[in-house]
Amino acid sequence: MSKQALTTSRLLGKFSKAVSNLQAGIGIAFAIGVGLVPVVSSVSAQEMGYAEKEELKFGFIKLTDMAPLAVAYEKGFFEDEGLYVTLEAQANWKVLLDRVIDGQLDGAHMLAGQPLGATIGYGTEAHIVTAFSMDLNGNAITVSNDVWQQMKPNIPHENGKPVHPIKADALKPVVNSFKEAGKAFKMGMVFPVSTHNYELRYWLAAGGIHPGYYAPHKGDNSGQIDADALLSVTPPPQMPSTMEAGTIHGYCVGEPWNQQAVFKGIGVPVVTDYEIWKNNPEKVFGVSKGWADKHPLTHIRVVKAMIRAAMWLDENNNANRAEAVKILAKSQYVGADEEVIANSMTGTFEYEKGDKRDVPDFNVFFRHNATYPYYSDAIWYLTQMRRWGQISEQKSDSWFKDMAKKVYRPDIYAVAAKALISEGKALATDFPEFATESGFKPRQTDFIDNIPYDGSQPNAYLDKFDIGLKGDSKI
Amino acid sequence: MLKQDVIPMRFSQIKRINSRAVSSYLGQAVWPILGLVIFIGLWNVLAKNVDTSLGQFPGPVAVWEQANVLIEEHQAQSAKAEMFYERQEKRNAQRVLNDPGYEPKIRAFTGAPTFFEQIWTSLYTVTVGFLVASILAVPIGIFCGLSKAAYGAINPLIQLFKPVSPLAWLPLVTMVVSAAYVSDDPMFSKSFITSAVTVSLCCLWPTLINTAVGVSSIDKDLLNVSKVLRLNAMQHVFKIVMPSSIPAIFTGLRLSLGIGWMVLIAAEMLAQNPGLGKFVWDEFQNGSSESLARIMVAVLTIGIIGFVLDRLMLQLQKQVSWDKSATLR
Prior knowledge:
The complex is a heterodimer of chains A (475) and B (329). Chain A is of the alpha/beta class and 475 residues long.
């Protein structure tokens, strides 16, 4: 290394140190961090400065979509960035979020709704940000064998097999018969602000089954007001056993817990979230705002490593998925049997036992700009929080945008991506056009009820639903 | 002639004694072995008839296989750790080259703890928790045994807190530890402190009560000896009270350690703190076809360790007890 370069890097190191001191001091932080961004991205990665914090601990929940973390660790992508990461499975989403907030974890695999929910103050209040979306799709709704037997006659068949996507219309008579018998129809989802909760609600409501409202301003966080189907929280790995015990009649969860039901012969997955909303954003990598402000370079390096992991997972048409399955099957990661994980990770999905179908995009980690944190995705989750009463009052369209911009940080993502491009580890064509990208996806139409979504008009979108809060309606 | 006669007789005597000793030794060993064989046989038969959604309940063979797998995993992980350190040294050297102001630092391996590391964590935690509790409980117990007033004051508290499951304390302990134990470079992890404090909380009571009872029921004659010799308070405690209440103290300590070990496993499961309890919970969550067998390995390990800990305490008691003739069991 030449002397000149050496002094440059030293100076830069000092500069970034000074900046981070300043940030910590004034606390307005990333406003300056963004100012730093062009400087950082114009120099090569080596001169970007080393991570402020090298020993990191990230939490995850045992689900296949934690794969980018496991891959970044096992393939050495974290170490390439000079990061020494420990990955630790967490008991449930609440524990995970609380530990990120109180600093026991530096960051974590989170439900897309978690940073948003925490930031707007639904549940534990804390400012969480995300600069990396971990995957698209990957969830499904499973019902118990008993419910499936009652549902099946209502589903149109072709060549002896049910026609997919199966709508909740087929479930409605079953729910009605439960009601007539005076029994509650119960389903599990993983967290009040989870993707699964909104997807399950979306699917049920699209079939005319009311999933119930939340009323946090009255202290009612059960989400069961006016409900036809009672939804409650169950940690993902316990879904199959809870359904087996008869406590719930179905659930919405990520993999491998739907395929596990097929293997155990205790239930049948009826619909994947790919069919409910094609290419929906699923998990994100969340860190607390305070952490992100204190460690801007570390954050960028973490995102770099995870982008590389996501690329690896989708490379050459999913060629690495078999190896990824082997990694995930280790007991410290997902730990389920290899064949169960492989069932959904390798582009297929098994519905009823033996009814294995091709769903090549069931788990998407990189293509379709899966890792880019779109504001419009954040706004969709916020609309659903409003729809089901978690946001109890009417909010303006600009409020939705402000919140999305507060939590989703495509600016950090862009710096990481550009660094990878300049290092030759990625191509510019792999990413959105950063100069022109607005962060809003064009109008999306692939929903199970064919209602189109435009992220720039959240209130107009809410008005289109028959079931759900809209306008100034209040519980 | 006579001598020749005597010697064989002696030999035969020795033989007889030997064979008697051997047969009595065998007699002692036969029953435990028989019990074990019957247990394994029954286990094998019953396991085949229990079907769970994770497959058959693991029999002895499956458990043995998984025990070996766990050993292999440990070795594989150790090899990975070695490579991790090699890579780290290279990276550190590279960085020092580019950034001379950097002080290289070797970080501990970041991989997941293996089964054996989890055993070590649990053992370490229980030892610390137990020692802390004993250091507190024995003196308080002695004090209570000596002074009626102190006993009267502390007894209601003991009665109130003794029946509380330490697991009920766990959330409180967790919150207090995370609030009170704040440091940038902590010597111990919070999870370790939480587990150890929880263990301590339940190890206190049996030791305390047994010590108090043991001390208050010392032979009158011994107390009189102390008075006659005009021993001062410290001498009285160390020469008379402690030695004569050793059996009672140890009964309390052994009870405490047993309970502490049981509670630790449960606390680790509940709080997700590292250790054997966490291993069991993680395996349960994994729900793979081998999970049950791996849990069974852990169950047996927990049992064996509990047994060994108790035997160790017994040995210790034998060492410190003045009455070597007393039978201990």
